[in-house]
Amino acid sequence: MPPPLSPLGACLAILGLWGLIGFLGLLRPRSVVLAGRTLFPVGALCGVALAVVAALNLGEAPESAVLVIGLPDLPMHVRLDALSAFFLVLLGVTSAGISLFAAGYFRRGAGTPPGLLCLQYHLFLASMGFLLLADDAYSFMVAWETMALASYFLVTAQHGIAEIRRAGFLYLLIAHLGAIALLLAFGVMQGGSWQFTFDAMRGAGLEPQRAALAFLLVLFGFGAKAGLVPMHVWLPEAHPAAPSPVSALMSGVMLKTAVYGTLRVTFDLLGQVQWWWGLVALALGLFSAFYGVVFAAVQTDMKRLLAYSSIENIGVIFTGLGLAIVFHGAGMSSLEALALVALLYHCLNHAFIKSLLFLGTGAVLHSTGERNLGRLGGLIHRMPWVAWLTLIGVLSMAGLPPLNGFVSEWLLLQAFLFAHEVPRAFVDMLLPMGAALVALAAALAAYVMVKFFGVIFLGQPREASLAQAHDAGVLERIGLSWLAAGCLALGLLPAQVIQALRLVGAQLSGATLPAASAPWWLLVPLPDRQASYSALILFLAILLVVVLAVLAVRLFYHGRVRHAAAWDCGFAQLDARMQDSAEGFGQPIRHIFQPFFAIERELPSPADARPRYRVAVGDRLWRILYEPLGSLVQRIADAFAWLQQGRIATYLLYSFVTLVVLLALVL
Amino acid sequence: MTPLEILTQLLEVIAALAVAPLFLGWINKCRAWLQNRRAPSIWLPYRAIRKLFHKDAVIAESASPFFRLAPYVVFGAMVVAAAIIPSMGTGLPLSTAADAIALVGLLATARVFMSLAAMDVGTAFGSLGARREMMVGFLAEPALLMVIFVASLISVTTALPTIAEHLATQALGLYPSLAFTAIAFTMVLLAENARIPVDNPATHLELTMIHEAMLLEYSARHLALMEWAAALKLFNYACIGFALFAPWGLSTEVSGPAALAASIPILAAKLALAGLALAIVETLSAKLRVFRVPEFLAAAFMFAVLGLLVHLLLGA
Hints:
Chain A is mostly helical. Chain A has helices at about 5-25, 30-55, 80-105, 115-135, 135-155, 160-190, 200, 210-225, 235-240, 245-270, 275-295, 300-330, 335-370, 380, 385-395, 405-415, 425-455, 475-490, 495-510, 535-555, 580-590, 620-640, 650-665; strands at about 65-70, 75-80, 560-565, 595-600, 615-620.
């Protein structure tokens, strides 16, 4: 055992505290005051503490320990290194904001009582933390499954509704398909030693084919959790079903644990990375990014829209991962470090931005009871706090300088710019083409975000009931502000963040960015390439021009303002239904990318007395992939159904025969 | 940061602010000549801005504070963009803060603010314009990024002044890749600045308009700022084009004040030629239906990607 105050010990203690907080919620499960107003804020403090401990340990040597709990011959191993520390920081900082928001969010009502939610929520947090520390396959899988189950129960908090139960089941199913792949992958990775500690796997020295098999299994397993296309179908179902803080946690943090796992296995455990793995990850990532954002543009449910946007961002992250692997295989160390930094930066950005946006939708949902974009609008007047804080997230997600989404996009494009130096014929030409897709996805993300913010918060309210909408409460505002401040800080001070991220890449794969001699406000990732970016200067320059313009207008201009009805080319009978709807705003995308969608249209004929127009946009992959797969499973199950006779004697016979066969095999 | 650099920087910003409406006036004059109309005064854009600055602002009752903030942000983004594009000299202190990718991002910031402001009042035209503007943007932006990517690959940096310097000092070796990207860039310029064939700056015909639809609710000083920003945007695009495809005559850090002075008439000549060329293109082409605009922009994107491929294949 390490001394109690070592960083690893402190992290474990905080995780234990989270578990304790969860169980305290059971004392009075129906009390909002205990669970919401007391336990959740304490949980947020734990998150901050975890982030601080992990951040201070970012550059230190790895520290490992063996816990006394676990299986008889397989105690649990834990290890804290730079990669774990980075993701612990992400978990701690993001969950602090989400917990504060959740403190004000969960109320009494239908579904799971607050105290039980408190337990599930904090177990979810603790299992994610433990997952990041796990140093053997057994602990890893225990944490992984606890995480999946805790989040399943959180998703189905409103379990009275059949749709939500179905969404939860889909999530659980795909999570377990992924888990099976991971189990198999660990089986391959132990390399015949039957030692399941990560240390043994590091030294296993697999032959190339086995390593490749392990990588593909891992990519499938973690990809299912992360939502890579085509394993993405659970995201757009589970996110609208879950309460908003849970969506925020799942999208902001849980998806990143899958990224962590992929990084851990690929760069740390597998050793000999082959460059073509990168192409696989890159292709999947680019396709997911593009697929996700195109679907996000045509959604009419605000949480589904964000879910598809998460698929896009995961795609961008895996694109970065693919680049890093290709560069690693080609021995281009500084470019590999650049790609790694870009992908880690994007993880952090996405955690903040997507949590902020999901919580923003939560506040809207709470105050209006409406998830459908077609029934919202004009909320900036009624909910200014939520609107302006969400605007920061929206601008960040759209990848606009000087906010944080732009920084990781910039880093990724910088990495792409040198992809043609990879010393492999043909690949050196294909790789830069990826930059075109990344650029297209980023520009489409801006489209999606304009739709998201414009339809919810701007314009006129589309329903009369929206006039009663109220702004978020104090705790919710603090939670939102915390995340928005994170977006601003990550956007304006990228050089400082990268100083920390360099350490992660350095410890993970030995790839370091060359030390920069630039001043503190300037980001120069590769000194010999002369590319630089300073968000702070850019921000101050825009601010200066804006202030000067305002002052000049004040000085030279009378400043008279009249308020009148909207002009709209002189059309007097303007009403809220004449604004663009969510369907209308997505129409160009539906039109341009028609082959992607399964579109069902119901058009009125000229003779209809009560014309009705309906259009539903579905995912083609359901029909191409999932429905045939489902019916195949059904057929196989039917074929084996005769085994199920329902008589206990028959089942005992099965057991007996199995035993005999096993004995025959062993002896 | 030498005094000369600061001088270049200030001169560029002031020149952009002052000359942008004139450039617009010049294009309008050329167009009128080519179309056998009586040409309006070249100073008309200035008078329009001055007139607008004197009017009372009328703001819709359903507008939020965002509506009044947006013109300043759009204007600010365009001025800062003008400050980082090497139009006269390459020794620009601000351009270390933002490279060519950040420049594209800055233009996107302006676009997003403008679209959101258009949706703010909640009129049919505003949201229609915002939707169309974003449709143009999501295809034009990656195309522009690819254009810049090719230029960056040739000169191994994304810093715009360095790209311009590098391309200017090449012994006029012809880059086939740049020919493709020049076509792509011209198409993007037409689309992004609401010119024919994508949009018509001269009409308010609701079925076709994009840019004007977004500005319908603006009046007085806010409209003036938006119009000025639009003029600056056109000027900025022209200067990006010069920096990439005609980078001759820029003063550099070592060439001294005389070169900076000499770069002023050179820029004027380039602008005059570019304005004339733009007027010819606009006169010769017909306005596209809005449904056809994505095809036009997809072609621009493909030209840019083709340029990239050509560069990678030929190494030139």
